Amino acid sequence: MGKFERLVAEGLSVPVAGWDFSWFSGRATEQRPSWGYARLMGERMAAATRALDLQTGGGEVLARMPKPPPVLVATEGWPPNAVLARQRLAPLRGTVVEVGEDADLPFADDSFDLVVSRHPVTTRWDEVARVLAPGGTYFSQQVGAGSVRELIDFMMGAQPVSPARHPDRAVAAATTAGLDVLDLRSEALRMEFFDIAAVIVFLRKVLWTVPDFTVEAYADRLRALHLAIESGGPFVAHSRRFLIEARKPAREG
Asked: Can you tell which superkingdom this protein's organism belongs to (predicted)?
């Protein structure tokens, strides 16, 4: 078995449930946004009374908060991740509810004074506004338009960049839902993949990057990328992230 085949086999053997990216240490790197989402989220959680984390994944980021609120609820749509999230959030007395990314939220109006979400697949701004209590805050780090497009284009050929994830669209949607946008920041962040196993694990884990990805279907492109990395060094791409914070207006009187 050659080096390419060994790396492919390794890439296929790695579990991809949850949002723990520790396996990538030494295999791939991604620059982090300057604002520090986990720290800022933790500060807001410490001041909250009833908080909701949407699309929590395996609860990895939420579980690191230093001081959970008295009521902590998370949603997750993929059952394997929901199992991991329940395990991680149990010490924080957090509740995990299985809810699809596009589904209505099974919570009463005005239920939470803080709603957070890191890298949501989609944002139901109408539902966020509904479950927020007056004066409550939505705080989210999201994937921006054109994220990792270098890898997408290498694997699939040149692809159009959808404007759906542009920060301006998020601002418009939040405003339409009746929220006041307090903060908006965006950055492009350098990524490096040091071998083809890391690329395979990334594409298996972050499913929407190349939606129909399988090793068999993309064998030729994977081999071409392997040869490019072997001869020219790490494959470089750029992730795009934006931070948005919005508040539901307090009731008058």
From this structure: Bacteria
